[in-house]
Amino acid sequence: xxxxxxxxxFTPLPPSKTGIADYCCxxxxxxxxxxxxxxxxxNDALDPTWLPDGCSFYRLDEFSKKxxxxxxxxIYQMGNNVHHAYMLDEIENKPGLLVLHDxxxxxxxxxxxxxxxxxxxxxxxxxxxxxxxxxxxxxNRENYIFDHLLEFMMPINGTLVDSSLGVVxxxxxxxxxxxxxxxxxxxxxxxxxxxxxxxxCFLESKTVAREQxxxxxxxxxxxxxxxxxxxxxxxxxxxxxxxxxxxxxxFEYWLVGDKSDAIDLDSLLExxxxxxxxxxxxxxxxxxxxxxxxxxDVVISLRYPSAGETSAALFRAMGLGCCNLVFDYxxxxxxxxxxxxxxxxxxxxxxxxxxxIKYVANDEEVRxxxxxxxxxxxxxxxxxxxxALEYTQFVKSTFNK
Length: 401
Hints:
InterPro entries: Glyco_trans_1
Strand order of the largest sheet: 3-2-1-4-5-6-7
Keywords: Glycosyltransferase, Transferase
Radius of gyration: 22 Å
Number of strands: 13
Strand content: 5-15%
GO molecular function, one term: glycosyltransferase activity
CATH superfamily of the largest domain: Glycogen Phosphorylase B
Shape: globular
Protein name: Glycosyltransferase involved in cell wall biosynthesis
CATH topology of the largest domain: Rossmann fold
Helix content: 40-55%
Organism: Thalassotalea piscium
CATH architecture of the largest domain: 3-Layer(aba) Sandwich
């Protein structure tokens, strides 16, 4: 058997608390069919707690010292948070394929410029992407004239895209935005990968999952997954549930993940008389994350505003056959009708959300049908083997030019 070519993937790995770390482990294992996969992590990262069979890892400094690694293809898995900051200089100086898990890198680049007192670099980034308007907005921000919504409305990614040989995204919305702004750049939408055979992640049934997690068998279970921040619109979901609780079966709403300090959940639950209905887990393991999905009847996966991210939690929920409620907005609009419930985007009026909740809460057959349709779609169109093949094709076509 011929020796496989090496492929370097720059990414955080578990135990880093980012879904991209889990994503890359799943993808990395599938890529070993085509490549010798080498992960490159930050110098200060902890040793990986999950390293797929057939893969190896180096810290950045160690990797950079190895002359034989200098010419191998590189994939930079970029997310909009500080876990990925160590890649920024590498992307600029040693171009490769850039994967934008979030279309905008505004939040990350603020942390790497303004948060460190470098106002000129922030101004340069905005000038690069938006010209005089961007420069003026940066200057206004220095004088505390700024709305944080602009970090969502004005993506910053131009210097990263310009430095890259090609760009991968997972949603059609991001692909259209890329092709419009960077018509000469090689771009590709690759289906978000889903794996349904990870050790320890899948229990025998919903009943077993509920028994293991201590969730009542007889109640209707809603859930929302991942770190709880204002864009997850948990307050909106809670207000909708409070308005319909007399019209749906007895329920619990499980918030699975850590909570941002920006949300005063205790006061809100008191105000809405939902204290007995809402459970907060705190951070859970990757395996437990899947178990909570298996235990759920309805997963509420709202997001507004969006930085162009693709929700890994939503793909996992759909792949497990959950019935999902989403806003018909951004990457969430990509999914075919019948695979989930799309609620018109309106974060001020809960009426449409209330109707959607009552519709799925009061009809088990509807929930099961939507969940089954979602599962079939994910397994047929988003299996990790499809993503691994498309990554391989794009790497070869880009680096062989």
